[in-house]
Amino acid sequence: MSKSPENNISKKELNTPTDLDPAKVEKVVKALNPLVADLIALWVKTKNYHWHMSGRNFRDYHLMLDDQSEELITTVDPLAERVRKLGGNTITSIGHVARLQSVNDNDNAQVAPRDMLLDLMEENKKMAHNLREAHGVCEEAEDIGGASLLEDYLNATERRTWFLFEATRQLQ
After folding, report:
1. Residues near 54 by Cβ (< 8 Å), separated by ≥ 6?
2. Which of 7, 75, 135, 157 has the smallest number of Cβ neighbours within 10 A?
3. Could you tell me the pTM of the whole model?
């Protein structure tokens, strides 16, 4: 296949050098791209709750969600770039995110603060599960770089989950 004029690039020209087996790379790409979509969707959801937070703990929750959203968005680029380093294609649009995400959208601006935090806690628990599954795919494919990224992201996800859990506890 040769290069055609105007935005048509041959597959050979996009063949990123990797020593990993192409079939294994395909499995890794299929495991990582939904995580990229989920990170973007969870970032939007966390920002939604950050922007619409109210109540007596407003400042603490608002700042915590700002920190968590910043952490989420900074993980997107390295994970998407991991897909590209292996020669795969990653997220291309908001529609692509919507097709791949497992994060449940919430378009409601009027959610009780505790319900916001509980919702985010559950989404982060789901994210941790998905990260573990993708980590297994990376390990099986001998993608040490991908597995290493996922380990860091899993630790951060568990920390977010813990903070959300502690913030929602109703002690007597």
Report:
1. 113
2. 7
3. 0.89
The amino acid sitting at 75 is T
Q: At what angle do helices 113-140 and 144-168 cross, to 10 degrees?
A: 160
Dihedral-angle region of residue 78 (phi above 0 means left; psi in -120 to 50 means alpha; beta otherwise) = alpha
Q: In this structure, how many other beta carbons lie within 10 angstroms of the beta carbon of residue 69?
A: 21
Of the candidates 63, 36, 52, 62, the one whose C-alpha atom is nearest the C-alpha of residue 127 is: 36
Query: How does pLDDT run across 35-89, given as a tens digit for each residue?
Result: 999 999 999 999 999 999 999 999 999 999 999 999 999 999 999 999 999 999 9
Structural element, H or E, at residue 115 = helix 113-140
DSSP for 10-45 reads -TGGG----SS-HHHHHHHHHHHHHHHHHHHHHHHH
From the number of C-beta atoms within 10 Å of its C-beta (0-12, 13-18, 19+), residue 119 rates as: middle
